Amino acid sequence: MAEKIDYATLKRGGFMRQKQKNRFSLRLHSVGGAFSSDDIRNIGDIADRYGNGTVHFTARQGVEIPFVKLEDVENIRADLARVGLRPGVCGPRVRTVTACQGSTVCPSANIDTQDIARKIDERYYGMELPHKFKFGVTGCHNNCLKAEENDVGIKGSCRVKWKEDPCISCGICVTACREHAIEMTDDGKIAVDYAACTSCGRCQRACPTDGWETHPAYTLTFGGQFGSTLIKGQECIPPIDDEETLFRVTDAAVGYFKDHANKGERMGKMLARIGRDEFEETIKEAYRG
Amino acid sequence: MADFNVADKVDITDVVCPVTFVKTKIALEELDEGQILQVHLAEGEPLQNVPRSCKEEGHRVLKLENNGDGTFEMYVAKGPDDEA
Q1: Which residues of B touch A210 (CB under 8 A)?
Q2: B10 — phi, psi (to 5°)?
Q3: CATH top-level class for A7-82?
Q4: If interface means Cβ-Cβ distance under 8 Å, which residues of chain B face chain A?
Q5: Residue ranges of the alpha helices (H) in A68-192?
Q6: Minimal-distance CA residue of chain B relative to A173
Q7: Are A229 and B75 contacting, i.e. CB atoms less than 8 angstroms apart?
Q8: Which domains are present in chain B?
Q9: Of B49, B54, B61, which is closest to A168 when you measure between CB atoms?
Q10: The CATH number of A98-288 is which of 3.10.20.90, 2.60.40.1930, 3.30.413.10, 2.60.120.280?
Q11: pLDDT digits (tens, 9 = 90+) for A157-198
């Protein structure tokens, strides 16, 4: 008789069972939707060789090769490895890290999202946890990457401080600010209400004279999910100014989830069950260092 | 009115992005370095983007005046040509 197939192990290795008998959709490891043109050509070749000549771009910027047969699993792994690709993961672990193009390409971005996504991927990808765990990195408050739908969302922010010398008192920043946090005084000086400022950076981006000192920052949200239940991730600390603090905080969030979540329970559901207070205290402690 | 020696004027309130900046850029190309262009532009998207784009292309925004009717006057001095 045929051997019993361990679907869970296949799924962990990125092979997702299809509705068709003995057909699997192979998920590839990816970060922030970034592939070289060689990668894309190689994926096409492998889809021709082992699949049905189609490739699926997933909802989270990944790539899957559908219609792969079980007996080809080892060969396709070897062929992928030869061209520097590897299968991805599914199931209860840290999933594909998503990211927008970020500051190396996009004029709006406050942070290098691709670099942060790669670092998160190196640190956490595939880590075993009570349930799936998603990171998403978006470069600015336009939020193309939808940070709040992730268990941990990272959004590029920009702290600003007005510089008197280059300012020509044009008032563009006043109109650019969506929070109405900027006022121009009668003598043409700029006053910022930092309690209302969300550090989105629109003021400095619209400025025609470089009239702002700027510092990139990371705004984090926790406990989001966007599946059958929709929960919006929430902030609990100010924007983070440096990478060291960023990873201290993400370590704390992942660690807390690992220690407190039930099996099959997402972070948002966990927080709804046990409350946010202790979690937020843990995050604040990590933020303070 | 600002006290500038304006070399040319351009009205970009009748076009939308990206033509707003294209019109401005073409008008600036006709000028010599340091000459001043007056741009009549609308608030909203053109105001957020055209002055910034001028700065990014190496021109110097000298002043912006609010006309109080949803339009602005921008005075921009042409920067050095980057073509050799």
Answers
A1: 55
A2: -140, 140
A3: alpha beta
A4: 43, 47-49, 51-52, 54-55, 60-64, 66, 74
A5: 73-82, 113-124, 172-176
A6: B48
A7: no
A8: 6-77 (3.30.110.40)
A9: B61
A10: 3.30.413.10
A11: 999 999 999 999 988 999 899 999 999 999 999 999 999 999
